[in-house]
From TrEMBL, chain A:
Residues 67-215 form the Thiamine pyrophosphate enzyme TPP-binding domain. InterPro entries: 2-oxoacid:Fd_oxidoreductase, THDP-binding, TPP_enzyme_TPP-bd. It comes from Deinococcus koreensis. SUPFAM superfamilies: Thiamin diphosphate-binding fold (THDP-binding). This is 2-oxoglutarate ferredoxin oxidoreductase subunit beta.
C-alpha cells in the first residue's frame, strides 16, 4: 500500500541538534534485517537515543560485536562509527586490543547470551577482570537466535524448546558473573523499557571502566508453544523468509513503562511471563554482597530484577594499569615507537 | 685436535647447569672461537636428563654434530649410556663419586673430586648441586685450555652487582682448575687455541633477537600466552620494551603487553589492535597456533594486519614440547577453514629474526594481512653467533591508510576492499578518522568492495579473486630467497634453522666430489626466484625437519611441471639436523652414477 504524496508538503523543520551539533539522524544505522519486533532492534534505537542525548561524536565511538543476531545490530546504529563484527564469543579480546591501540574512544560492544554466556564466557570474564573501558551490552534472549533456537546458557531451567527438548541446566546469571569477576558497573534491564534502557545506557557510556548491561531482549521468532498463535507452527504458516532465519512472524515490540520499586508482569512472545521488578530509588548499588544477594533472592522469587545493580568507580582500568601513553598507541609518531640507532648499538654491545 | 670438537654436558634438569654451560660458551666466544650451543632438554622442570652440546669449529660451522668427542658426565642416570656413545679417542669428565659400570680404555676418563671441592670451598649444602657444575667448568678450562679470565669476565657480567656470587662461583672453577693442573695427566688430544673469528660478533638467541626486532619495528601491542618454546620471545619483549620504549618526557609506555587468558584471546587482541591501527604481535607455538585458527582466517578475510611468531616445536598434538621441528609449514600456510593462504616469513639466523622482527610489521601493514614468522626451538632458544643487527634501513611502511583529507578529496566515499592498482590491497581508515564517510564496518562475512554485507555470488567471487591477486602481489613484497653456488646439476632447497647443516653438508658433499647449489626459502608465498632455481637444476633436493616433506609438498603443488624433479629429504626426530645427515641423505637421493654394464643396448 502506498499513500498518495502530499500535494502540499510542509516546509522541512530543521532537525534539533545536540551538543555535538548533530541531529538524531546522524546516529542512525543501516535498516535492520532482524525479525520485525526483535528486542535487539529496540536496543539499537536506545543506543541511538543515548548517544544522541550525550552528544557522542560518532567517529570516536567503536562498535564491536561477536556473532549472532544480536551481534549484527552494530550495523543498525551509528553509521558514522568505526565498527568491527568479529567471531563468535571473542569480541571482548578484540575490544581489548582496539582500546589498547586507540584509547580515547568510547567502545559500544554488543553481544548475545550465547555469544557471552557460552562460547565467550571466558573472554567475558577476563575483559571484566581487566576492566577494559567499554560498554558491554548483552542482548539476552535465552536462546540462540541466529542458529534457530537452541538453549543458551541463560535459558531457564525446565524450559522446553521444540527441537531441543527440556533444559535441565541452571541458568547462568551474567550480572552475577560480572560482579564476581570484578565489574564496576552492572545493570539489568528489559529491552521494552525504553526509558530505563536509555538511562542505563547513558550512565554506562559515561562510566570509565567496563559497564555490563544485561538487557532481556525477547526473540520473537523462537516461540514453541503450538497452542499459541505465536507458535512455531503458526509462524511457519505465515512464513516470510529473510537471510538465514526460517521465518519472520510479525510481532509488535514489547514495550513497558513502570516506576522504580514496582513489579510488572510481561508476557513474552514465546509464551512465558516475566516478572520485572525495578530496583527502588533508595537502593544503594555500592555493595557487592548485597547486589549478589539481591540477584539470588530475585532468582528464587522468579523475578527479573532491573536497574543498576552494582556500582564501583574506584577500580583502575586496563589503560591505567598498563600506563598506556596518552596519545593512542596506534597514532604515536615513529620517533616514539622506533628507538634510535644509538640505542641499538648499545644493546648490541650487551650481547658482544 | 685443535678448535674442532663438540663438548656434551649431561646433567640433571633443574640442577642449575645453565650458568656453568653459559659460562663455557661465552668464554669460548670471547676467546675468538666460532661456537654454537644447543640445549637438548626434557619437558620437565626437575630431575630428568638434559644435554647441552657446545660445538667449537675453527672452520666456523655451527650445525649440530652427532658424536661429541668430549663428554661431561654429571648425570648418574645417563652416565653409562653417554659413555658408550663416546667415539674412540674421546674423553669423559665425571665427578669421582659416580662410577662408570663399564669403563673403556679407548677413551680418556677424568674423575673430578667435585664433592671434595664443594666441601673445601665451604659451599652451603643447599647450593652444592648447583655449584658443583662449576667444577667441570674449571676442569675443562685446565684440560682444554679455556682462559680463566674469560670465565671470570662472564661471571662478572652475569652476576653484575653481586660480587659475592661471582666470587663463590669463580673460586670453585679455580679450585677445579688447580686440582687438574696438579693431579691430572692429559691423555686426550683436544686443545683450544685463541682465534680471532668472533671479533665484532654477538652471541644471542633467536627469540631475543625477534623481540628486539619487533621493538625496532614499532610494535605497540603485544598479547601472548605462555608456551614453550615461544615464551622467551614474549619475555624478551617484557624485558626490553620498558628499557627501549618508555617516552622519556612523560614516562609513559609507548606499548602495551598483555598476558592473555589463552591464545584465542591473544590473537583476538591483535585483531582489535591491528584493525585500530597498532602494530600488534604475539608469540606462540603449535598448539597455540591451532587455537588461533579461526581468528587467523578472520584477519585474513577482513584484512587486518598483525604479526604472529610461531616458534615451532614438535607436533602433532602436544608432541615433544621441547624438541625442534619444522612441522607447521602447511598448517600455518593454510591456517583456518576455507580458501585461506597466509604470508609466512622463515628466518634462519638471529640476524634474520631481528630483521623479520621489524619487517613483518611493514609487510603486514603493506598487505593488510596477518604475517606469520615460523621460527623454531633451535633458532629461538639456543645461543648463536651473529653479526650485530642492522638498524632498519627505511622509515616504517604503514601501507594504504587514508587520512581525513584523503577521504574528503575522495568525496566522502572510499572502497575499503577496492583494488585500485592491481595489488589486491584496498585502502583503509583508522578509527578516529572524522571525515564523513571514513568509517566502515569490518566483518568476516561476505562483503562488497564498500565493506557492506553481501551474499551475492559475484561479490563473493570478486573478493576472493582480489585476495588471490593480493597473494600474487605478496610474492614481490616478501623477502627474496638466498641462493648460493651456481651451475651445479643438483640444487638443495631448505628453510629456517636447518641452514647451518645445509652449509656444512654442502662442504662435505663437495669434498666427496658432489657439487651442489642451494636456495634458502625465506618466505611464503614463494618468490618467482624459487621457480627459476628449480627450473635451472636437473634435480632439486628439498631438505627439511618434518615427517612428510611439507616444503617439498608445497613446491610440487606450486610447480607441478617440475614435480618429478623435486626430491624430498625430510627428517624429524626432535633434534636439529647435522651436516653429515644432509650430505648423506642428499647423496642418497641423487641417481646413482650409471655404471657402463647397466647401459641399455
Ligand atoms: C565458532 C562458531 N561456532 C558456532 C557458530 C554458530 N553460531 C552463530 S550465532 C550463534 C548463537 C548466537 O546466539 P546469541 O549469542 O544468543 O545471539 P542471538 O542470535 O540469540 O541474538 C552460533 C552458535 C559460529 N558462528 N562460530
Ligand atoms: S531470531 Fe530472534 S533474536 Fe534473531 S532476529 Fe529474530 S527475533 Fe531477533
Amino acid at each position: 500500500m502506498t499513500s498518495p504524496a502530499p500535494s502540499n508538503p510542509a516546509p522541512a523543520r530543521p532537525a534539533a541538534l545536540n551538543s555535538a551539533g548533530l541531529a538524531k539522524n546522524d546516529y542512525k544505522g543501516l535498516p535492520s534485517t532482524l525479525c520485525p519486533g526483535c528486542g535487539h532492534d529496540s536496543i539499537s534505537s536506545r543506543i541511538i537515543d543515548a548517544a544522541y542525548a550525550l552528544g557522542l561524536r560518532p567517529h570516536m565511538v567503536l562498535k564491536l560485536s561477536g556473532i549472532g543476531c544480536s551481534s549484527k545490530s552494530p550495523a543498525y546504529f551509528l553509521n558514522g562509527s568505526h565498527g568491527i563484527n568479529t567471531v563468535h564469543g571473542r569480541m571482548p579480546s578484540v575490544t581489548t586490543g582496539a582500546l589498547l591501540a586507540q584509547r580515547g574512544h568510547t567502545a559500544i560492544a554488543v553481544s548475545g547470551d550465547g555469544d557471552t554466556g557460552s562460547i565467550g564466557i571466558g573472554q567475558f570474564k577476563h575483559a571484566v577482570r581487566r576492566n577494559v573501558p567499554m560498554v558491554y551490552i548483552i542482548e539476552n534472549n535465552g536462546v540462540y537466535g541466529l542458529t534457530k533456537g537452541q538453549f543458551s546458557a541463560t535459558a531457564d531451567q525446565g524450559q522446553t524448546l521444540k527441537y531441543i527438548g527440556t533444559n535441565d541446566l541452571p541458568a547462568l546469571d551474567l550480572c552475577a558473573e560480572a560482579i564476581l569477576a570484578g565489574a564496576g558497573f552492572v545493570a539489568r534491564s528489559f529491552a521494552g523499557d525504553a526509558k530505563q534502557v536509555t538511562e542505563l545506557l547513558k550512565a554506562a557510556l559515561s562510566y570509565k571502566g567496563i559497564a555490563v548491561l544485561d538487557i532481556i531482549s525477547p526473540c520473537v521468532t523462537f516461540n514453541n508453544h503450538d497452542e499459541s498463535t505465536k507458535s512455531y507452527g503458526y509462524g511457519k504458516a505465515h512464513e516470510v523468509p529473510i537471510h538465514d532465519i526460517t521465518f519472520v512472524p510479525e510481532f509488535d515490540e514489547i514495550r513497558v513503562d513502570y516506576e522504580p520499586g514496582e513489579v510488572l508482569s510481561v508476557r513474552l512472545h514465546d509464551g512465558p511471563t516475566v516478572q520485572l521488578r525495578k530496583l527502588g530509588r533508595d537502593y544503594d548499588p555500592r555493595s557487592r554482597l548485597s547486589a549478589l544477594a539481591l540477584l539470588e533472592g530475585a532468582r528464587h522469587g522468579g523475578e527479573l530484577l532491573t536497574g543498576l545493580l552494582y556500582l564501583d568507580e574506584t577500580r583502575p582500568t586496563l589503560l591505567d594499569t598498563q600506563h598506556v601513553h596518552d596519545t593512542p598507541l596506534a597514532l604515536l609518531p615513529e620517533a616514539l615507537t622506533r628507538p634510535s640507532p644509538q640505542s641499538l648499538a648499545d644493546v648490541m654491545r650487551q650481547f658482544g | 685436535m685443535i678448535n674442532d670438537f663438540t663438548i656434551q654436558v649431561a646433567t640433571v634438569n633443574g640442577s642449575g647447569s645453565q650458568t656453568a654451560n653459559a659460562t663455557l660458551v661465552d668464554a669460548l666466544f670471547h676467546m675468538g672461537l666460532p661456537v654454537n650451543a644447543k640445549n637438548v632438554f626434557p619437558s620437565n622442570i626437575k630431575g630428568l636428563p638434559t644435554w647441552y652440546s657446545i660445538r667449537v669449529s675453527g672452520e666456523g660451522f655451527t650445525a649440530r654434530r652427532d658424536d661429541p668427542e668430549i663428554l661431561v658426565a654429571f648425570n648418574a642416570k645417563t652416565l653409562d649410556e653417554d659413555l658408550r656413545a663416546l667415539p674412540p679417542g674421546g674423553v669423559m669428565f665425571y665427578p669421582d663419586h659416580l662410577k662408570p659400570a663399564a669403563p673403556r680404555d679407548d677413551v680418556s676418563l677424568y674423575a673430578l673430586p667435585a664433592n671434595a671441592i664443594m666441601k673445601e670451598q665451604e659451599v652451603d649444602v643447599k647450593f652444592r648441586d648447583r655449584m658443583a657444575n662449576l667444577v667441570y667448568v674449571g676442569a675443562l678450562a685446565q684440560v682444554l685450555g679455556i682462559e680463566m679470565t674469560a670465565i671470570h669476565d662472564y661471571l662478572t657480567r652475569n652476576f653484575a652487582g653481586k660480587p659475592k656470587v661471582v666470587g663463590a662461583n669463580y673460586d670453585i672453577a679455580v679450585a677445579a682448575f688447580e686440582w687438574c693442573a696438579v693431579n691430572l695427566t692429559k691423555t686426550d688430544p683436544y686443545t683450544l687455541r685463541r682465534m680471532d673469528a668472533t671479533a665484532g660478533k654477538i652471541l644471542i638467541d633467536g627469540n631475543t633477537a625477534a623481540a628486539l626486532g619487533a621493538i625496532y619495528g614499532g610494535c605497540t601491542v603485544v598479547s601472548w600466552y605462555p608456551i614453550t618454546p615461544a615464551t622467551s620471545l614474549a619475555e624478551g619483549l617484557i624485558e626490553w620494551m620498558p628499557k627501549l620504549r618508555q617516552d622519556s618526557e612523560t614516562g609513559k609506555a609507548t606499548f602495551a603487553i598483555v598476558q592473555a587468558e589463552d591464545e584465542l584471546a591473544a590473537i583476538g587482541m591483535l585483531v582489535g589492535a591491528g584493525w585500530a591501527g597498532a602494530r600488534a604481535m604475539t608469540s606462540t607455538s603449535g598448539p597455540g597456533l591451532s587455537l588461533m585458527a579461526e581468528f587467523a582466517g578472520y584477519a585474513y578475510f577482513a584484512e587486518v594486519p598483525l604479526v604472529i611468531w610461531n616458534v615451532q616445536r614438535m607436533g602433532p598434538s602436544t608432541g615433544l614440547p621441547t624438541r625442534v621441528s619444522q612441522g607447521d609449514l602447511l598448517s600455518t600456510y593454510y591456517l583456518s577453514h576455507g580458501d585461506t593462504r597466509h604470508v609466512i616469513l622463515l628466518p634462519a639466523t638471529p640476524a634474520e629474526c631481528f630483521e623479520f622482527g621489524w619487517r613483518a610489521f611493514d609487510i603486514a601493514d603493506e598487505l593488510q594481512t596477518p604475517v606469520f614468522v615460523n621460527s623454531d626451538l633451535d633458532l629461538g632458544m639456543n645461543a648463536w653467533m651473529s653479526e650485530p643487527f642492522t638498524y632498519p634501513e627505511q622509515p616504517m611502511k604503514r601501507g594504504k591508510v587514508l587520512s581525513a583529507e584523503d577521504i574528503v578529496a575522495l568525496g566522502g566515499r572510499f572502497g575499503r576492499y577496492q583494488d585500485e592498482d592491481g595489488s589486491g590491497v584496498g585502502p583503509r581508515t583508522l578509527p578516529g578518522n572524522d571525515a564523513m564517510g571514513a568509517a566502515y564496518f569490518t566483518r568476516g562475512t561476505g562483503h562488497t568492495e564498500l565493506a557492506t554485507y553481501s551474499e551475492r555470488p559475484e561479490d563473493w567471487q570478486r573478493n576472493l579473486a582480489r585476495l588471490d591477486r593480493k597473494h600474487e602481489h605478496a610474492r614481490t613484497v616478501v623477502p627474496e630467497p638466498v641462493v648460493s653456488g651456481e651451475g651445479a646439476d643438483t640444487g638443495i632447497i631448505a628453510m629456517g634453522s636447518t641452514h647451518p647443516a645445509i652449509v656444512e653438508g654442502r662442504v662435505m658433499l663437495e669434498r666427496e666430489g658432489v657439487d651442489t647449489d642451494s636456495l634458502r626459502v625465506r618466505a611464503l608465498p614463494f618468490s618467482p626466484a624459487v621457480r627459476a632455481f628449480i627450473a635451472a637444476h636437473e634435480r632439486t633436493v628439498v631438505v627439511e625437519m618434518n615427517q612428510h616433506g611439507q616444503l617439498a609438498i608445497l613446491l610440487r603443488t606450486e610447480y607441478p611441471e617440475f614435480a618429478t624433479r623435486i626430491l624430498s629429504v625430510a627428517h624429524c626426530d626432535g633434534l636439529p639436523l647435522t651436516g653429515a645427515f644432509v650430505a648423506a641423505r642428499v647423496k642418497a637421493a641423487l641417481p646413482s652414477p650409471t655404471r657402463p654394464e647397466e647401459v641399455n643396448a
